[in-house]
Design brief:
alpha+beta; Aminopeptidase; 5-stranded mixed β-sheet; 5 strands; globular
Length: 179
């Protein structure tokens, strides 16, 4: 288990009756369902974030290889027997040897079902992420957020995140091949 026992005991929210648990292999379908909802929403904001046709196989391969490892955390939020949110963290070793602070944790995904927005569940998941990152000796966490996702950007700022770098892109229109 990737969460210390004393931390795991504190992951139950009595007000919401939500429990956070590290995902198990047999719960992959819950992970995939929530992952698809997250990326469908992101793709509705920017079509460049649409999932590849074989995304489920790729996600399963990554999940099955890392869900029990010490370098990743796949956390599910449960309301009774229904998955209502999830979080994926991954330790990123190295980076460029040119930079001093290269030990980081990446917040790969965070999603909470719409009916749980504003309940504190996302903050619970974020606190679990921060605790896990601290226990794994990270000097910082990073994430990617769709530029058009104002709600997420506001949430992350409220949780103490701040922009450290911008990623820009330029659309390329392919030219027809010359005869």
């Amino acid at each position: 288990m990737n969460i210390p026992e004393d931390t795991e005991k504190n992951l139950m929210s009595p007000k919401l009756d939500i429990r956070l648990e590290p995902a198990q292999l047999e719960q992959f379908s819950a992970i995939a369902t929530l992952f698809e909802k997250l990326h469908s929403f992101n793709a509705s904001l920017n079509k460049k974030f649409a999932l590849a046709p074989n995304w489920r196989e790729i996600l399963y391969e990554q999940f099955s290889q890392t869900y029990q490892s010490n370098s990743a955390l796949w956390l599910l939020a449960w309301k009774e027997d229904q998955p209502v949110g999830f979080l994926i963290l991954q330790a990123k070793a190295g980076g460029s040897p040119l930079f001093q602070n290269s030990q980081r944790i990446e917040l790969v995904a965070l999603y909470v079902e719409t009916e749980f927005h504003g309940t504190g569940l996302a903050q619970q998941l974020m606190q679990a992420a921060k605790t896990w990152a601290e226990l794994h000796g990270a000097s910082y966490m990073s994430l990617y957020v769709t530029a058009q996702n104002d709600r997420a950007r506001t949430f992350y700022q409220h949780c103490g995140w701040h922009p450290a770098q911008e990623i820009w892109h330029m659309d390329i229109t392919p030219h027809s091949p010359s005869p």
